Amino acid sequence: MTAAQKETLGFQTEAKQLLHLMIHSLYSNKEIFLRELISNASDAADKLRFAALKNDSLYENDPDLSIVIECDSKKKTITIKDNGIGMSREEVVENLGTIAKSGTAQFLESLTGDEKKDSQLIGQFGVGFYSAFIVADKVEVLTRKAGETAEQGVHWESKGEAEYSIESIEKVDRGTTIILHLKKDQKEFTEAFRLRSIVKKYADHISLPVKMLKEEFGEEEKKKKKKEKEFEVVNSAKALWARSRTEVKDEEYKEFYKHVSHDFEDPLEWSHNKVEGKLEYTSLLYLPAKAPFDLWNRDSAKGLKLYVQRVFIMDEAEQFLPLYLRFIKGVVDSNDISLNVSREILQKDPVVDSMKSALTKRVLGMLAKIKKKDIEKYQLFWQEFGQVLKEGPAEDTSNREKIAKLLLFATTHTGEEKQEQSLADYVARMQDNQNKIYYITSETHNTAKNSPHLEVFNKKGVEVLLLSDRVDEWLMNHLMEFDGKQFQDVTKGKLDLGELDSEEDKKQQEKVDEAAKPLLERVKKSLGEKVAEVRTTNRLTESPACIAVGEFDMNLQMRKIMEAAGQAVPDSKPIFELNLEHPLVTKLDEESDEDRFNELAAILFDQANLAEGGQLDDPGTFIRRLNKLLLDLSK
Ligand code: ADP
């Protein structure tokens, strides 16, 4: 088959589904198709400029990059023409026939069928080029890659259904022209005035000039009409971040955000700064309102758009922010980096390191400010990205203090699952003689909240952080201390409430321990290798028993996480603690029948495991034992 031959190809399944969904769910916001197409044209110009840094001939003697938008009300078409990088035949198939984003299939599965909700999701996904089909029932793309010959032009066409056709054509001028054949009921977009106002709205923040036919006023003008079409630039065509803060309106910041992030929603906050002095750069950092659909995908898009002296260099420059701030979107424009920079060079450049540390501080400062000024807004951020920020103390020890101040937790203060208490809030509520920050980690909030380990804390009115996010174990391993106070896992080691226990309490405990020795030994003998130690407890007020771990051992939650990840877990046994005041333990102590003693001890041990959210080795035997006891009771 020669390349020129017309081919009809089917869209990739995902592309088909997405097209269908988008056409239906974005209908109420249909004008965004222009934003997406202008955004693509602007990216294409950026890419050409970058490629031309190394190879000037790519400009083909036409270095003035721009977008031209025209409409024809008779033919009901809108044409968007750029002289950017263009696409080869393979690129057209690759870019317009498939959806290259990883996780697309997962994304489609997450859709609910509820159009309103789905349209938000699809916004997060970013539909780009396909949005043309919201208003058009046929889309044509004519394109030719910079540096290739006129014969290597490509014509792509689709009705947005199952398939598209592709054909080689002659195209003299470089770049991409998109022709939208509007649906019958979308004629409004061919009204010059309407189109112009949308173009202005969506193009004002990009640095590329966007041209439209000059406006004509009244009959006089029409009479004078020249044969030659006259175009004028309708946007301000200056890189938004290069303008001064006072000049840029909030609306423009928001539009620019949508351009850089491919998000449909407004950002939650932004920070625009020009740095002068030893290093010179401008940064415009955005905090999104919603997590992208692929936040947890390892190779999801992260990093800033890098410009050097206004010239676009690369997308997703990850070197300027740490991973735990990967949700930040935006632009950084440096005067100190070479135009020939590559990702490898960026990784080693000390200039980049200094910028990274300054930008990190900038973001942490922005978050601290929101938290202080508008806690409700901060909560919104926390809900979306809190778990990512929790990776911070492990990754970035130099900012550990700052990050710790930004953390929010669920605690026994309210018992609510929502994470809304800061460590400063906790410290302010600490008891006079309390010197540690207590926490418990579990698989779920309820397991943490109802853990027997909290009984004594509840009794004494001492607050405990309730941690149930996966990342929490990791976080607590790196947090160490806050405000001079150490963190203490309530399930680890012997519970030493320090100053919270009076001397008298302690003496009393020692006496009790002494008296209980025979019972403890008997239980240890009965449970054998399952436990490292059996001892009395000062943690419990209501439960008969609980499981604790050694001070330097891994707690149960960490163990579970590591096991789930298929990692080897050190072999350490739990400590079994008995509440001597509990009637079941008294009963155990009084049991003279050895078999019954063993059964009861085993049940108490299994129960304690269950209360921690643990899994029993042998649930069947546990149930059989329990049922036997229940039957005995009803006798
Ligand atoms: P995105 O822009 O998010 O990558 P799109 O669906 O909008 O997704 O576009 C897919 C790809 O098609 C782009 O990444 C780009 O490579 C290519 N493309 C789209 N429009 C143009 C254009 N006007 N000029 C050159 N390439 C384009």
UniProtKB/TrEMBL annotation:
Residue ranges occupied by any Histidine kinase/HSP90-like ATPase domain in the UniProt entry: 29-186
Q: Name one Pfam family in it.
A: HATPase_c_3
What CDD domains would the database entry show? HATPase_Hsp90-like
Region listing for C, in residue ranges:
561-635
Keywords, sorted A to Z? ATP-binding, Chaperone, Cytoplasm, Nucleotide-binding, Stress response
Q: Which residues bind ATP?
A: 36, 40, 82, 87, 95, 101-103, 124-129, 176, 343
One MF term from GO for this chain? ATP hydrolysis activity
InterPro entries of this UniProt entry?
HATPase_C_sf, HATPase_dom, Heat_shock_protein_90_CS, HSP90_C, Hsp90_fam, Hsp90_N, Ribosomal_Su5_D2-typ_SF
Q: Where is this region: A?
A: 1-343
Indicate where this protein is primarily found. Answer: cytoplasm
* Family (UniProt): Belongs to the heat shock protein 90 family.
Write out the function statement from the record.
Answer: Molecular chaperone. Has ATPase activity.
**Subunit structure, interactors included:** Homodimer.
Protein's name according to its UniProt entry: Chaperone protein HtpG
Q: What organism is recorded for this protein?
A: SAR86 cluster bacterium
What is the primary gene name for this protein?
A: htpG
